[in-house]
Amino acid sequence: MTQPVLELSGISKRFGAVQALSEVDLRVDPGEVVALLGDNGAGKSTLVKVIAGVHPADTGTIFWDGRAVPVAKPGDAQQLGIATIYQDLALCDNLDIVANLFLGNERTTGGVLDEVEMERRASELLDSLSVSIPSLRIPVASLSGGQRQIIAIARSLLGDPKVVMLDEPTAALGVAQTAQVLDLIERLRDKGLGVILISHNMADVRAVADRAAVLRLGRNAGDFRVEDTSYEEIVAAITGASDNAVSRRAGRVSVPGTEEA
Amino acid sequence: MTTDAQVTPGSQAALRQANRERVVAALREGGTLTQAEIARSTGLSAASVSNIVRDLRSTGAVSVRETSSNGRRARAVTLLRPPGVVVAIDFANTRLGVALGDSQGRLLLEESIAYDVADDPVRGVRRAVWLTETLLTQARVDHSMVIGVAAAVPGPIDPVSGAVGGITCMPRWAGFAPGSELAERLGLPVTVDNDANLCALAESFEGVARGVEHVVYVNVAQGVGAGVMISGQLFRGAGGTAGEIGHIGLDERGQVCRCGNRGCLETLVGAPHLLDMLPQYSSVEHGATLEGLIAAAVAGDPGCRRIVSEAGSALGRGVAIMVNMFNPQMVIVGGAIAESGELLLEPMRRAMELGALGSALADLQLVQGELGRRAALRGALRTALVSTV
């Protein structure tokens, strides 16, 4: 078994009276796409925010490359090499692609913006992701939804992260654009990055994810290898159909030789 | 070539399928029924009937009309055709297409995406399954309504094992059986055939070759393949490699081909070879696509015209051999390069006159395909439909 790049153990998080996460475990290997699935309110976004350092966990440990690390603020996560792309993408519509990629991280020479160097780095980065964008100097407002998502992902890669978290990257995208984003996720995996993918779309999950970790009501509700799990098993874990009164009773009274097929 | 896979008994999908069959049986027996009547005669709840009718309606299997029964509003449902959807998948070198058709072969929905299919067969299949599932969701068609799936692959397919032949324009697919991989992921039986064969089928069923018995369809893309229809039937050969004309040797001092011979037809007309021929200072830059080359040729660029015209001559010499062998009534040229029309066909015709028997050419029509690049998908839809009967 390979050393997981990121491992969470016993993460709990409470907001006042709401126990958002209780004793959640998660692991991501390098070069692995893990889909984080769950119904609304299952704790997916909270878990992402715990990893990103936005809401530090109350209890539990985060292991990075096998050693326990504190993640108390977003800067900690970034320092470790965890990049997060939220649904709103946080792009500046009026700026061009290069300016967006280097936003807050501009390269300068002698106190002046080094546009040439930034453009060179930008095109190098986009080429390495096989992204074709006609011009790097057009404002982001004129890009399609899929291209904006790709730019947002590309921007997160400038910091050389080891784990990328994507929150619903394909929601509200058309078929061809979704395909582009899925291509990019595959390429991130090929580069050896760990990817955490939050999605409600089972087709997308089955297309790119290696593993599916299911959360339900703030707890782990299953961890499946996507290749050998049926669609229905995963949906059952999300909705809790596999964990109802009947199956629990069956578990309690199971006597050898009388299990149901 | 067809692989078996069935819906697990007792699963939700099986239940939905059984319920739908009950509704269809009730309609078949009773003609036009209101939703309430269907619910009574099948014993299903009104909500289930409403859901099933909605599914059937989205595929055009039933028509729904607002009416009244005993002074109340009601919805009268009539069965138009047997329910069911067929799926066609087209694996091209750098594109992936999926189409959904109804049980009478009409197109419901079609989508194609750019994808490096040649790079990895398992990923190509995985992405094809994604596109299929996405389209089914978009068309509001339940997975259990799919009655047949067929896929087109640019390479010879062994009729027994379903594996792609050793020499194809997608070398990483050699020995891979896309049919069984697709069937396992989709949970449905899948038929796989060579793309040129399916193009020939489509053109003779609904394209330029309607009513023509003996047809050769030449598909020119990365490589060259031909689909041969003899007396209205596809001829695949013992190992599925009939019509692999790309490896007819034409120039013993030509380029070495990936098949190990020299000067094969493919090295004279295949897309990468044509793009390599682009002159240094032409109006089309290096790194252009075949579409760009053809557009430039049509617009009158002399270098590109020359490339297309020489490709036509080479193709004519290769096809002349087939014409002598099979004496077809029609030769159809398809694939991207066919869009250059007479620029390609004229030199091709002249080369065929030099290379084939006069009597074989007397009744021969040389034409451009009518269905264009959708031919393979249309043929796969047709095959998927036939596979269900």
What global shape of chain B is seen?
Answer: elongated
Biggest sheet architecture of chain A: 6 strands, mixed
Tell me the β content of chain B. 15-25%
Question: What's the CATH topology name of the largest domain in chain B?
Answer: Nucleotidyltransferase, domain 5
CATH 4th-level superfamily of the largest domain in chain A: P-loop containing nucleotide triphosphate hydrolases
Order of helices and strands of chain B: HEHHEEEEEHEHEHEEEHHHHEHHEH
- Look at the structure and give the CATH class of the largest domain in chain B: Alpha Beta
Structural class of chain A: alpha/beta
Q: Give the tally of β-strands of chain A.
A: 12
Biggest sheet strand order of chain B reads 6-5-4-7-8
Mean pLDDT of chain B: 88
Please tell me how large the radius of gyration of chain A is: 20 Å
Number-wise, the strands of chain B total: 13
- Mean pLDDT score of chain A, rounded? 86
Spell out the blueprint of helices and strands:
The complex is a heterodimer of chains A (261) and B (389).
Chain A: E1 6-15, E2 18-28, E3 33-38, H1 44-52, E4 59-64, E5 67-69, H2 74-80, E6 82-85, H3 97-101, E7 108-109, E8 112-113, H4 115-128, H5 145-157, E9 163-167, H6 175-190, E10 194-198, H7 202-208, E11 211-216, E12 219-225, H8 231-239, H9 245-252
Parallel strand pairs in A: 3-10, 3-11, 6-9, 9-10
Antiparallel strand pairs in A: 1-2, 1-4, 4-5, 7-8, 11-12
Helix pairs in contact in A: 5-6
Chain B: H1 12-30, E1 33-34, H2 35-42, H3 46-58, E2 62-69, E3 72-79, E4 85-91, E5 95-102, E6 107-114, H4 121-138, E7 146-153, H5 178-186, E8 190-194, H6 195-206, E9 215-220, E10 224-230, E11 233-235, H7 266-269, H8 271-276, H9 290-299, H10 302-326, E12 330-334, H11 342-355, H12 358-362, E13 365-368, H13 375-388
Parallel strand pairs in B: 4-7, 7-8, 9-12, 12-13
Antiparallel strand pairs in B: 1-3, 2-3, 4-5, 5-6, 9-10, 10-11
Helix pairs in contact in B: 1-2, 1-3, 2-3, 4-5, 6-13, 9-10, 10-11
Pfam families (chain A): ABC_tran (PF00005)
Domain ABC transporter (chain A): 6-242
GO molecular function (chain A): ATP binding; ATP hydrolysis activity
